[in-house]
Amino acid sequence: MTEKPAKRLFIKTYGCQMNVYDSARMTDVLAPLGYAPASSAADADMVILNTCHIREKASEKVFSDLGRVRAFKTARAAHGKDMIIAVAGCVAQAEGAEIMARAPFVDIVLGPQTYHRLPEMVARAARTRDGKGSGILDTEFPAEPKFDFLPAPRADGPAAFLSIQEGCDKFCTFCVVPYTRGAEYSRPPSDVLREARGLVAGGVREITLLGQNVNAYHGAGEDGETWGLGRLARALADIEGLVRIRYTTSHPRDMDDDLMAAHRDVVALMPFLHLPVQSGSDKILEAMNRGHTADDYRRIIETLRRYRPDMALASDFIVGYPGESDRDFEDTLALVREIGFVQAYSFKYSPRPGTPAAALKTQVPEDVKDARLYELQAILDAQLRAFNVACVGRSFDVLLTHPGRHPGQLVGRSPYLQAVHVMADPKHIGTVACLTVVSCEPYSLGAVWADAAKDAVKTA
Ligand code: SAH
Ligand code: SF4
Ligand code: F3S
Prior knowledge:
The chain is α/β, with parallel strands linked by helices. The chain folds into 3 domains: 7-138, Rossmann fold (3-Layer(aba) Sandwich); 146-390, tm_1862 like domain (pyruvate-formate lyase- activating enzyme), CATH 3.80.30.20; 392-455, CATH 2.40.50.140. The protein contains 13 helices and 21 strands. Helix 7 runs parallel beside helix 8. It starts with 6 loop residues before the first strand and ends with a helix. The mean pLDDT is 93. The structure holds S-adenosyl-L-homocysteine, iron/sulfur cluster and FE3-S4 cluster (F3S). Iron/sulfur cluster is lined by residues 168, 170-172, 175, 177-178, 212-213, 251.
């Protein structure tokens, strides 16, 4: 019997790390059907666009990319070859019917909660596909959590993502996530620990726990108790071989005492936290329905730094939320200067259909948003550079994860999530090395082995 040729799967991932995790899981569920990764969409038997709806630009990009994929499908058809096109993720969830109508060449539209059913959908698509809009749409929020139906993920390198929480019940007035990802759900701690042990057995040394509101985690323990993220982190830290734990993205409202104290007690918890504040103005924070003030945020940071003095902070910011005055924006700049964020994502407010803020009459003009974003980013960028410069001459542990672009070079992550380059043998991949930083580029650090550092710093 001749072996069936492997089918090629190409996934393009937009948006957040939850989507990165989901794309990896879609690859896993399709592997038993004979799909192996393709290097480009042009020669794939199946293309999945795993989409993001968070801002207008992200959503629009999907339709332009679909045009390109359609051309590949047509070119393949001329050679008698098929291509299944699927749109997954948050645009699929929010605009599934519109995608089917605007792009009838799309075979499958599936939401973030249904991709465990992808094999069935692919089989059905192969039977029913006619390119005339009779595609498959599955954007339910099924009662069965998809995690129960997914195969155990395989380790792929020393650093891995592990999704522990999904969805959001907070309904910030600007945000689509509660609509695209659904209600908050936490996986049971026993599942998380099992998945983590499997990853560590496969060589993983660092796990980043993922969730839209990861610190709202409240998993139902087998002991009858509800576990928060602090307790989960402590249990994970007991896994032999797991040396680093991170989590993202957190919400200030869910930064409870136990989790903050875990940063003091659990060595594996890295001293870098992405804790989006969005704005430094109490008026805007209230209008956004964030549920905390700027001072609440300051107090959290104060506590965290008391527990872990080297804690580095990252954030997200929105400028030009409806009604944001110059004064409100100044409050944001003041908070940024005070906290000294070492990394941040900042965005112009983008009105999203169906969210309360989109209907407000007090929209900020585009040129004002542009100017504010420019000013904010200049400060954030300067802070990032200052932090990197201050690292030169310091030694810290770096988890070496993969080869760099230059021969003989390895890349790793510092405790503060900076990319670090070092000349080293590939056998060190997967180890934590004590390195001394000798140089700094805008977005990465150059380092040498700590015991070789003295000379290097002298001659640098
Ligand atoms: N759950 C996280 C954020 C998830 S969305 C939190 O609560 O902080 C990721 C980021 O996208 C947000 O932090 C916000 O800064 C940005 N964002 C979300 N909706 C947006 C919108 N309508 N316009 C501009 N930025 C937006
Ligand atoms: Fe969106 Fe707010 Fe939920 Fe974060 S907490 S996902 S910003 S609604
Ligand atoms: Fe985007 Fe959905 Fe993530 S809207 S940011 S892909 S949760």
